[in-house]
Amino acid sequence: MFSTARTLRAAVGAVCALVLAAGCSSSDDAAPDGDLVNVTTMRGAFLQPAEIGPAWVAPLESAAPAQLVSFCGGASPAPEIPPGAEIVASNAADEGEKGAQTLQQSALVYADLASAEAGLTLLRTVAAQCPATAEVPATVTSDRNEPAYNESVEIRELDENGWNGFVIIRHKLYESEHPGTADTAVAVLRTRNVVLVDSYAVYRLENSSPSAGFEADWKRLVGSVVQRVG
User: Fold this and answer.
1) Contact (Cβ atoms closer than 8 angstroms) between residue 20 and residue 114
2) Domain boundaries, the chain
3) Is CB count within 10 Å lower at the N or C end of the chain?
4) What is the pLDDT of residues 167-213, one digit of tens each?
5) In terms of CATH architecture, what is 19-229?
């Protein structure tokens, strides 16, 4: 569904200098206001749990609406939301005894196209700085117990149906004493005045093999939202 032909290469910090002050120009900056996407449209484009599958539900403790998912591997924090956007979000999860799936959908809705392009550029800069691999020791706290793991990060370009941006693909492999994997796709795409940050993750317990359907699943989920907005 999505074109993922090339990997992001050089860091993009120098692209669009002083992006907050001046914004970035793009070929569609002259689009009329009638082509702007509003918050209601984005909220309606999000997938609801029942649309994804019978076992999917809205989590009891959703991530805070004003928080994005982490881009990089390991214990890196989530990126800050680029300024100037109104954010809408919707989360869903499918949790079982042998694993879980999660979907976190966020949309940054800006007042104009240049601001959205600037927001995408800032998020692209964060992604470009992610290390390719991370080794994380076991973590045991009062609210978290996670075995040691290695995580790889790959970044690909995306361009589909008027949306352009990138996707971060993360693969986490736990230590052999506690077999398990986690595959995460974070798609960051812009069309007109909106930046979509759509994250799908699948966790497998007691199994060291990656999820066979992961690639097709994240493309299907993200593609469904993209097609609804057009």
Assistant:
1) no
2) 19-229
3) C
4) 999 999 999 888 899 999 999 999 999 999 999 999 998 787 777 89
5) 3-Layer(aba) Sandwich (3.40)
